[in-house]
Amino acid sequence: xxxxxxxxxxxxxxxxxxxxxxxxxxxxxxxxxxxxxxxxxxxxxxxxxxxxxxxxxxxxxxxxxxxxxxxxxxxxxxxxxxxxxxxxxxxxxxxxxxxxxxxxxxxxxxxxxxxxxxxxxxxxxxxxxxxxxxxxxxxxxxxxxxxxxxxxxxxxxxxxxxxxxxxxxxxxxxxxxxxxxxxxxxxxxxxxxxxxxxxxxxxxxxxxxxxxxxxxxxxxxxxxxxxxxxxxxxxxxxxxxxxxxxxxxxxxxxxxxxxxxxxxxxxxxxxxxxxxxxxxxxxxxxxxxxxxxxxxxxxxxxxxxxxxxxxxxxxxxxxxxxxxxxxxxxxxxxxxxxxxxxxxxxxxxxxxxxxxxxxxxxxxxxxxxxxxxxxxxxxxxxxxxxxxxxxxxxxxxxxxxxxxxxxxxxxxxxxxxxxxxxxxxxxxxxxxxxxxxxxxxxxxxxxxxxxxxxxxxxxxxxxxxxxxxxxxxxxxxxxxxxxxxxxxxxxxxxxxxxxxxxxxxxxxxxxxxxxxxxxxxxxxxxxxxxxxxxxxxxxxxxxxxxxxxxxxxxxxxxxxxxxxxxxxxxxxxxxxxxxxxxxxxxxxxxxxxxxxxxxxxxxxxxxxxxxxxxxxxxxxxxxxxxxxxxxxxxxxxxxxxxxxxxxxxxxxxxxxxxxxxxxxxxxxxxxxxxxxxxxxxxxxxxxxxxxxxxxxxxxxxxxxxxxxxxxxxxxxxxxxxxxxxxxxxxxxxxxxxxxxxxxxxxxxxxxxxxxxxxxxxxxxxxxxxxxxxxxxxxxxxxxxxxxxxxxxxxxxxxxxxxxxxx
Length: 806
Known about the structure:
CATH class of the largest domain: Mainly Alpha
Distance between the termini: 72 Å
Mean pLDDT: 81
CATH architecture of the largest domain: Orthogonal Bundle
Shape: globular
Number of domains: 5
Low-confidence stretches: 1-27, 434-471, 477-501, 665-673, 800-806
Strand content: 25-35%
C-alpha cells in the first residue's frame, strides 16, 4: 500500500515539475516479426502521430534513409538516422526479428546495420511521443534507444551523458557525417569542434561553455530549455530568449551542417503561429554567433573549406564564397572550398610572372583575411612594399596588409573570412587577361589605364606607316584620353566611398526615380525625412529612403567612415542599410523597408499587442543594442532609442533603425564630450550634466522603452487623469515597491498570469534607469537578465527619475 502511495506522489511531482510537457507514451507496441520495407510506404508512428520511424525517400526515388522524423511537419524534418546516415536502395527492409534484434537489410538481403541491444534481446519496440525509438525486454527494461545514439539532433526530454558526441551532416540533404562535432567532454565541458573526416580527429574547439564537473548531464527538458547540470547542483543554461510552450510548438536542437548549434521551434497549428513564420522552423537560439570569426585553427580548412572565405548573410547564417578567379570544388556543396581557375605563377626562370611582369596582378578585397597559412611576416612595411614582396615571390598567392604589417600566404589558404572587424585588405594574386566574368569586384584603379594604353599602342602600330593617319590617330587619342576627363571636370560625379561589397552607391537621380519624386512620405525626424521607394516594380522590392538634412560640412569625413562601418553590419534586430547617395550637397541613405511600421504606432494604437509579442520585441531590441555596443567591429552608440526608432518587419521582429546617425551628423565624434542628442523623456541624466557619454546612455533609454513595452503607454502622459501616474518611470517604481505590478498591466490577463517574468522585466528596467551610469548593466547583461540566463538582484531606488524629463 505504501509503495502505491509513493508511486502516486512521484507521478504527481512529475506533473507539477513539467505542467506543459508531453509525457512519453509507450503504448502502440511493435511486436517481434514486424518489418518495414521501402516498397510498402509505411512507418511506425508514435501514439500522438507526431513522430514516425521508417524509410524516407531522399534525393532520388530509388534512394532511402532509415530515419525518425516529425510526421506532422510538412517537410518531414529528420531528427535521427540509422546506418551512419548512409542511404539504401529500393528493396531494403528493416525488421524486429523473432530473436529480438532490430536489423536493416539491403535489397540483396544482406544485413548492413543492427541496433546493438543490452540486457538481453528485445520483446517489443515502440516509437514514443518524444521521438525516441526504444526496444524493450520482457521486464520493460530498455535494451536499446535512439536517444543513446544521437546523430545531429536532440529533442525535449533527452539527456546526454558526458562523452556523448553529436555530428553534423555533410550537407543539408546529405545525412552522412560532416566536418563539425559537438562533444560533451568527460570533464563536464561542452565544446564545438571541426574534425578530420578521414580519422575523426578533433581539431581545436571553436566554442566552449568552459564548465567543469564530474557526472554532469546535458538536459533538454520538456519545457524546451537546454542546460548542463552538475553534481554540485550548479546549472549552466544554454538556451537564451523567451521560449514558447512545447504544448503549442515542436522543439529541436540541431548541430547544422554549417557548424552552428541551433535550437528551433515550429508552430503546431495556425493559432500558435501569430508571432512566428507559419509553416517553417524558427531559430530561437544558436552558438556561436559568428562562426566565420569563431574558427581559427592551424589545422583544418575552417568553416568554408580551403581557398574560400566565409561571411554572415542577411539571414544570420554563414555563406561561403570564392575569391576572384577561383571556383567551387563542388558547386552543389559550397562548404567544400574553392580551386584556382588559372595556372599559378611559375618559379621557373622563364615561366609566367618570372619578373612580376604583366602576367599577374594583385586584386584587393577589403576587411578580408585568411589568418593561417603564413609563409612570411614583415613589419614595419607599407602597402607598396607588401605588394612588391608578394609579386616577386612565386609562392605567394595572397598578401594581407594591415597597418604596418604584411603577411604573405601560400596555397591552400584556410579559415577565410570577411568582417568589418578584420580591417586591412587582402591582395590576391591573379592573372591579367583572364575572363572577367567570374570576377565579382570592380577592376583596380590602374587596370583601365593599362587597357586604354594597350589599345592605343596597338592602333599606333597598325597605322604607323601613314603620316595623315597618324595625325588622325593623334586627334582620336586626344578625344579618347582627355574628353572623358574634361567631362568629369564639367559635371560633378558622385564621390566614391570604399565600401567593400555590401552597399550600393546611388545617384540622386536614381533615388528620385525610386521614390517617384520623393512622393510618399513615411515619416520625419530631427535629421531628415523618410520616403517610400521601390527598386524593382516587378518584384515589389520596397525600400525606405532617408533624405538627410542639417549636415555639417566638417562631418563629411566622418560620414564616409561611419557609412562604411554601418554598411558591413548585419544583425537580425537592426534595419539593414542597403545603399547611399553622396553627390554634391545631397546625402541620402537607403534602408530595407519595414512593412509593419514603428513600435510607437504598434504599442500606442487602438488595440494592445499580446504579451508574448511585447516580450519578443523587448528581447529583439536588447539583442540589437548588445550587438551595436559589444559585437560589431566598431562600437556604435545609438543616442536616440525610442519607439519611433524601432521598426517592425513583416514578422513583427523588432529592428533598430537610425543606429549611428546621431554620431554621423555631427562634427564632434568623440565619445566623451558631445553635443546634446536624443529625445527628452528617453535621455540619460548625464546628457544634461556635462558628463562623459558612453554606451550607458542607450541602456537608460532602453529602460524607459522597456517600461513602455510592458505597460503599452507613453513614458509621459501629462493629460493623465491621475497626475501622480503621469510619469511612467516614477509610477512603475512605485508599483514595484508597493508590490502592485498588476496595475502596470491592468486588463492584460496574459501578462498578469506571467507575474514572474513581469517582475523580472520591471526590475531590469529599474536597473537600466539608475542615475549613476556605472550602476547600469551593459546591454549584454540586460539581455541575459531579460532571458532569465542570470539572476536579477533587487535594484536600488534610482536617485531621480525626473531629471531627464525637465
